[in-house]
Design a protein that fits this description.
The protein is mainly β and 117 residues long. It has strands spanning 3-7, 10-13, 18-25, 33-39, 46-52, 58-60, 68-73, 78-83, 92-100, 103-107, 111-116.
């Protein structure tokens, strides 16, 4: 069992920055793929990006490339989503999740990010 706890959300003006954290516990995560997702009101949940816990390789969607960066701290069992140049359309509940064998089995509770004009 893996427990994921997100933090770092909040209200920020357009152009500002936030860093989300996802603290993981309960299992060795070296074989996991860690993902960030978001869900805006009235919309489907959207994949934002992922990072391989073992290799550190990251993937992000085009709409956040150059603005969002995913990283990890192995010693702290924590994954980060650094979000810069935030736009109102980035407003959503952000979730981290852990995948093994290609399926995201474990999810955090989510953290709200609101970007105002």
């Amino acid at each position: 069992q893996v427990e994921l706890v997100e933090s770092g959300g909040g209200l920020v003006q357009a152009g500002g920055s936030l860093r989300l954290s996802c603290a993981a516990s309960g299992h060795t995560l070296s074989s996991y793929l860690m993902g960030w997702f978001r869900q805006a009101p009235g919309k489907e949940r959207e994949f934002v990006g992922s990072i391989s816990w073992s290799s550190g390789r990251t993937v992000t969607i085009d709409s956040v490339k150059g603005r969002f960066t995913i990283s990890r701290d192995n010693a702290k069992n924590t994954v980060y989503l650094q979000m810069n140049s935030l736009k109102p359309e980035d407003t959503a509940v952000y979730y981290c999740a852990a995948a093994v064998a290609g399926t995201y089995h474990y999810w955090g509770q989510g953290t709200q990010v609101t970007v105002s004009l």
